[in-house]
Amino acid sequence: MTTSSSIDALSPAELGQLMHFYAESGVEWLLEDEPVDRFVEFERQLAERNRATAGRETKEADAPSRERSLAAPASIKPAALPDGEAVSEAQRIASAAQSVEELIENVGAFTGCNLRNSARASAFFKGSSGARIAIAGGCPGPDDDRHGAPFSGPHGEMLDRMTAALGWGRDDIAVFNVIPWRPPGNRAPTPHEVEICRPFSTRLVELLRPKALLSMGNFPARFFSGSQESIHSLRGRWIALTVDGQPFPLLPTFHPQDLISAPACKRLAWQDLLSFKARLAEL
User: Fold this and answer.
1) Within a domain: residue 62?
2) CATH of the domain at 213
3) Which residue pairs from 169-172 have beta carbons closer than 8 angstroms and sit at least 24 positions apart in sequence?
4) Would 72 be classed as within a structural domain?
5) Structural domain contains residue 276
6) What is the pLDDT of residue 11?
7) Which of 4, 48, 121, 189 is the most buried (most CB within 10 A)?
8) pLDDT by residue (tens digit) across 264-275?
9) Is 60 exceeded by the pLDDT of residue 155?
10) Number of domains the chain is built from
11) Are 238 and 251 in contact (CB under 8 A)?
12) Mean pLDDT of the chain
């Protein structure tokens, strides 16, 4: 554990690295001004829980058997669907959506993905349903999860500056995350979770029918292309997709987080954006 004395000895650069490590680890809030002994706190909570359990068992033993049989648990979590059934259910409700608004509503009501249970909110879509440009991110980050919208916080601010520099207005753009819910601790989604979420992003692109798709970061580039190459290899290369039987162009580029972490990537990202804008003019 990092103590206050060890923190005082850190340089500004080292402090920045520590904060970056906390952010990548999923730490979002620093609530206590003084350190808390979590071992003592755990022992206290365990003792309270044991006392409560003992009291409840004694009370239930004294209750008539019929009353015990009719008593309902305080809270029951919905049973998780098996992965195969969850994928089928996701495909069904995605296909049933006849508009972007209906799809967003269906995604918000979907309970077949475990990621939904740990996330604060869905962070699936933001923008105009009539947009001619679609921008795809990967998984929601802490700011997305907090605000319930993709590309929130510093990532969204950087994206706004990038699109404004190209002359794109809010009505021109729709942004979405291919995974609607933030994985706990910013871990990578499992292959099963990806397949459960896949029908939503595919159907969204079908309903939006933008002229072209700009994907940002490793995850969405691999998600749509099927390639396992890194974004450093995929960026700037047009990929021909097929959506609803029609050819569809995809251009991968860096995620705003890549540009924040490695400012040298900004020049390459700007080249990608200019290529994307030129292709839009041709289309």
Assistant:
1) no
2) 3.40.470.10
3) 170/127, 170/128, 171/128, 171/130, 171/131, 172/128, 172/131, 172/132, 172/133
4) no
5) yes
6) 79
7) 189
8) 999 999 999 999
9) yes
10) 1
11) yes
12) 83
